[in-house]
Structures are given as C-alpha cells and as structure tokens.
Amino acid sequence: MRLLVTGGAGFIGANFIHYWLKHHSKDEIVNLDKLTYAGNLENLRSVEKHPNYKFMKGDICDGGDVAIAMHGVDIVVHFAAESHVDRSILGPAVFVMSNVVGTQTLLDAAVEIGVKRFHHISTDEVYGTLELGSKDTFNENTCYDPRSPYSASKAASDHLVRAYHVTFGLPITITNCSNNFGPYQFPEKLIPLAITNLLEEEKIPIYGEGNQVRDWLYVEDHCRAIDLVLRKGKVGETYCVGAQHEEMTNVQVAKKIVKLLGKDESSIEHVKDRPGHDVRYAMDSAKIRKELGWKPKYDFDTWLEKTVEWYKKDTLWWKHVKSGEYQEYYKEQYEDR
Length: 337
Ligand code: NAD
Ligand code: TYD
Known about the structure:
Elements: E1 2-6, H1 11-23, E2 28-33, E3 53-57, H2 63-70, E4 75-78, H3 85-90, H4 93-113, E5 117-123, H5 149-168, E6 172-177, E7 180-181, H6 190-199, E8 204-207, E9 213-214, E10 217-218, H7 219-232, E11 238-241, E12 248-249, H8 250-260, E13 268-271, H9 286-292, H10 300-313, H11 315-321, H12 325-334
Parallel strand pairs: 1-2, 1-4, 2-3, 4-5, 5-6, 6-11, 7-10, 8-13
Antiparallel strand pairs: 9-12
Helix pairs in contact: 1-7, 2-4, 4-5, 6-8
The chain binds nicotinamide-adenine-dinucleotide and thymidine-5'-diphosphate (TYD).
C-alpha cells in the first residue's frame, strides 16, 4: 500500500508518520509538505532514512507538485493546512488558499488517478461554539457554524470533500477531531506554548478570563483513530474524535502545567481576549467508539505528564523552533495585549 501524507512535517502529520511506520512498516509513505513556518523536518529525523519513507517538498495548491506526489498512491491522508486560529485573525488569505484551494487541488488529482481512499483531517471547530456549563456536545449531525477564518476554511474543505464523494464517487472519509496535544506541537498552541514559556521562565498568557473549555485529545490516540477509520471505517462517513476527558477550563489546564513544572500560579497572566473566541468545544465520540472500538489509551493527566516530560527532554527541538519567525509572530500576537 502506498500512502500520500500531506503536511507530514507538521505536528499531527509527523506523529502519524511515526505511528504508521511503526504499525504498518511494509507500507510506503510519501510526505508532501511545503515546509511553512509550521513544517519541520526535525520532526522526522529518526525515520528519514527508512526505506519506505520519502519526503517531497511541494505545495498542495500546485497541480504539478500534487500530480507527482500522487503517482501510484492508494490512500491519501490529508493533514496539510494552516492550523492556527490566531494567525487566521492576523491574515486569513493564506488559510483560504491552503485549506480550500489546496484541498480542491488534491481532490482533483485523487479523482484523476482513482485513489482507493481520500481521508480528510478536520476539526470540531467547524461546528462553532457551545454554551459554557451546558451538557451539549458536537456530533456528526451537528450543523456547521464556523466562527473564525480558520474554522470557516476548514468547513469549506469538508464540504468539498463530501461534494467530491457525491459528484465524482471519490471514496472519502473524514475525521473531525478536537484539540490535539503531544510531542512536536508548534509552540503557538496553548499547551506547548505554556510548557516552553515556563521552561524559559516566562509567563503563560491566558486570553480573557480563561474559562473557555476544550476537549483535549492526545495525538497518539488521534493517530489510532485515523488508523481505525482507514482500515474499518465506512466510505462516505464522518467520524467525530474527542477524548471526552473531564472538562477543564484553560486556566485549569494552565494550573496543571504550572504544578508539573514546579512553578507557582503567579506565572499565569491574563491578557486581552481573542476576538470571536469560541467558548466551549465538546465532542461526542460515540460513533467511532461503538462502530470501530476506539477509545483514548490514558487519561488527560497521564498524557499531559508525558507531554511535559517530552518538552523538558527535547529542549533543542523547541528552542530551535522558537527562534527566527516565531519571535516576530510572538511580538505581533502578544505585545500590547
Ligand atoms: P501544523 O500547523 O502543525 O502543520 C501543518 C503542516 O502542513 C505543516 O507541516 C505545513 O508545512 C504544511 N502545509 C501548510 N500549508 C501547506 C501547503 N499549501 N502545501 C503543503 N503543505 C502545507 O498542523 P497540525 O496541528 O499538525 O494539524 C494538522 C491537521 O489537523 C490540519 O488539517 C488541522 O486543521 C487539523 N486539526 C488540528 C488540530 C490540532 O489541535 N492541532 C485539531 C483539529 C484538527
Ligand atoms: P489553541 O491551542 O490556539 O487552540 P484553538 O484555538 O484551536 O482551540 O487554544 C486553545 C485555547 O487556549 C483557546 O481557548 C485559546 C486559549 N489560548 C490562550 O488562552 N492563550 C494563548 O496564548 C493561546 C495560544 C491560546
């Protein structure tokens, strides 16, 4: 089997490549990645010489790059995207280009060569926001209501993927997952930003009151969910993937990280809120749990501890990532907040 993984040099894509080569070592993987600020070949250092792994630098919006990468491919696993809400507020255009036009370019090529499966990675953010304190959850039948340029571009890409299934008969599956965390996550997202800031004796910037709620999913649990959908999922179907650990606010998550790193709560700082900040996400993963037997391996605290340990050990990885472009972004995003 030959897989085309798009965005494999990013956080989830790289974890997925490690996972796949470990569990399906006979399969071939082509990783197509543009290496934007978020793409980092250091994430794949230990597999770069694997005989069944090949990296191709290219843009999913470029039909020529995509045609080369797609050659002989059986399964497409599509991660490549601009993925950070705050950056989509600073500059939406690239989100429409990579997330919408890029997905459509891949879909055209997938139809052309007749792939056996096109699996699209999406997000719970396409469903909008839930009321704080309610018991409501998102599921596969929830109406789309995206509220940021990021989630709007992901919603558009989901619609295209489904449209290509209906119109052209492309065998697709989609997973809409909740917030991932784990090794190799770019430190613009809350958990790695909090950990690495504390390791550098900086504070954790919490937007507004910090009472927002996310459904935190460890990246390896997510990779296992994608594996199950690829092997046992039904073509044309969508699966919601969220860990559904006990609900925690952003401040509670920050406090856990503070404790694990032996700091005190004065290292949490409240800053100006994000415009259009979604208040609460909660996934109902009953479908993938019942139909495919998926569940998270450990609880949130265990996975968070492992994650903190990884960032403590791999300081070179994040120190390198936090230099250069990151400094400019951090200044623009957090100065005067
Ligand atoms: P990431 O930002 O860490 O990585 C994205 C990767 O895509 C990078 O390697 C980047 O170089 C590549 N890329 C971007 N534009 C490209 C283009 N035009 N052509 C080729 N490559 C390009 O993202 P991530 O956190 O690993 O997210 C992966 C996918 O999962 C995305 O589709 C995202 O929307 C989705 N998702 C992420 C989360 C999360 O918590 N991180 C949650 C739900 C869904
Ligand atoms: P993030 O990791 O950016 O993911 P998303 O916005 O896709 O859910 O943010 C997770 C939560 O943490 C979200 O409610 C915004 C909040 N947050 C902060 O309070 N401070 C920060 O510096 C960041 C990056 C996020």
